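## retry 2 of 3
previous attempt timed out at serialization; input unchanged, resubmitting
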Amino acid sequence: MHPLVGVLVSYLTGSIPFAYLAGKARGIDLRKHGSGNLGATNAVRVLGKGIGALVYLGDTLKGTFAALVLPRLIDTPNPGLWSIAFGVAAIVGHVKPIFLLGQGGGKGVATAGGVFLGLAWLPTVISMVLFILTVAITRYVSAGSLVVSVALPVLLLAFRGLTDPLALISCVIGAFVIWMHRANIVRLRHGTEPRIGSRREEPARS
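## retry succeeded, writing output
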């Protein structure tokens, strides 16, 4: 398989909208309920914890498949760099899914977590623990995501050094995740961000 085919496959894999499909199976378009986001958090809020957990697992596996499995199927002298490229393509697919015409994707947290879990499991697991602690203390999933977006790059830079490609790309992805959560940051500042466990049917918002 040519590496560029791997990039395309990764993007298409990332584009599979598990949250959208789970909602449609219940007769609900998640883009019009809760936050309007096609991610695991909104799936939990609208569809329940069980379905939300399955959505999270699916979104995570998209990243792990792209970064860990696909590189084994290609013939390239730089599998490490292509693993990163495939992972980034999967994240882009999740955020801008072609199957939904590039509209209404998720924020990329779970898929990015799957990518880094496949490529650097220890820093990722530590970051996941920080995520769980943050959410447990604050009851804000968005706060946990923001903590991870900072903690993981710092950990990767500490573990791998300032010139490591994965550490550097983690800084870019971390900044991107923070940007994707800009509306959440505003709501956190104003005290209007929904806490975990809230199932209020609010108008869809970013």
